[in-house]
């Protein structure tokens, strides 16, 4: 059952059929400046985005201070011994909540974290500790989406399809599995599409399939990856640009 909290429902319904732009930059990227995430978010709002997805407390706070849009917050924390990097701890969840994010995104896969826990087991803990937050479950497949919804996720999206050991060979979205998620879960949670969407046509396709909203990041806000997709093809696929996108920072 979708949340009955009127405040949460109002915010989530305001995102329907809209574009959410992921406005993120890391310090080792060529586009990084102290205010780049703000500029990205300002451009997203100017262009008609309904919300922002943002990484790390300081960037979330800067965006909230300057751009009047809801924020899906996360904190990417990388470790060499795990592929879990999206808001992997309760402390990280509290930090992005305190920074102003209305929605908390976290890894809800079955992968093992740096701390030795199963990533998705954090979800019910966050629900208990920060009950006011809307929870965005980043999953890699249908079964993980089912578990996340059963354990209180308000939003599910296949964000991590292509980022787990079983799916890391993937370049494009699995439209068929996403359509099944939309059909089966539409009455229980808000199903959004995130990951591998690079054109307006693909964004329209997932809305047609039943997505509540669509999140787009690299194809809009990261020109170095856009360039690398072109040069990858022009060089005869000698290098895989997705390896650069998946790199740990």
Automatic annotation (TrEMBL):
Keyword Hydrolase: no
Reaction catalysis annotation: an N-acyl-D-glucosamine 6-phosphate = an N-acyl-D-mannosamine 6-phosphate
Keyword hit for Nucleotide-binding: no
Pathway in which the depicted protein is active: Amino-sugar metabolism; N-acetylneuraminate degradation; D-fructose 6-phosphate from N-acetylneuraminate: step 3/5
Enzyme class at the top of the EC tree: isomerase
The EC number(s) this enzyme carries: 5.1.3.9
Pfam short name (any one): NanE
InterPro entries: Aldolase_TIM, NanE, RibuloseP-bd_barrel
Family statement: Belongs to the NanE family.
Stated role: Converts N-acetylmannosamine-6-phosphate (ManNAc-6-P) to N-acetylglucosamine-6-phosphate (GlcNAc-6-P).
Descriptive protein name: N-acylglucosamine-6-phosphate 2-epimerase
